[in-house]
Specification:
By secondary structure, this protein is α+β, with helices and mostly antiparallel strands. It contains 2 helices and 5 strands. The protein has a 5-stranded antiparallel beta sheet with strand order 1-3-4-5-2, with helices on one face. The longest helix has 15 residues. It is elongated. The model has no long low-confidence stretch (mean pLDDT about 90).
Length: about 160
């Protein structure tokens, strides 16, 4: 069995204001279908026509974009399973949707670390992710807090 490579940077090491290298990817019908299976949502706007001139991505695309951005920041170009032990916890998020992400559209995802702190013995990291459409319009702002590991700081 191959050992999984170590991340180049752990979220506990993220500095406040640290910007992540932006990523771009095209939102494909396959990505959308994968998300729809996971959330059991079959709204026709996601796969057929919508009032926004074609199918649109479900709101969960914002979280997927954040995960891809943070994973790239941690692992670089590593592709594959990125599960580590101990596992982290996605604690809370707030998403502001400004304009739909269209299926087939290339989006640009930018983000940074807003805060990195300890509360009640556990480390929390706050992130901001901005998602732009291929024409430069802001599609969404996604702010989230996660615990890089659930165990208390210093515990083994």
């Amino acid at each position: 069995m191959n050992e999984m490579p170590k991340p180049r940077k752990h979220p506990a090491e993220f500095e406040v204001g640290e910007e992540f290298e932006s990523i771009e990817f095209t939102v494909t019908p396959e990505m959308v279908n994968f998300l729809l299976i996971g959330i059991n949502d079959r709204h026709p706007w996601y796969t057929t026509n919508s009032p926004f001139d074609g199918p649109v991505a479900p709101p969960l695309m914002c979280q997927m974009a954040f995960i891809r951005l943070r994973t790239r920041h941690m692992w670089g170009d590593f592709i594959g399973a990125v599960f580590t032990k101990p596992a982290g916890v996605h604690y809370v998020y707030n998403a502001e949707y400004h304009d739909p992400i269209k299926v087939g559209e290339k989006i640009s995802v930018k983000g940074k670390c807003l805060a990195n702190y300890i509360n009640r013995g556990r480390r929390y990291v706050d992130y901001e992710t901005l998602i732009y459409g291929e024409d430069g319009r802001l599609c969404a702002r996604y702010v989230s807090t996660s615990l890089p590991q659930y165990r208390k700081e210093g515990d083994k």
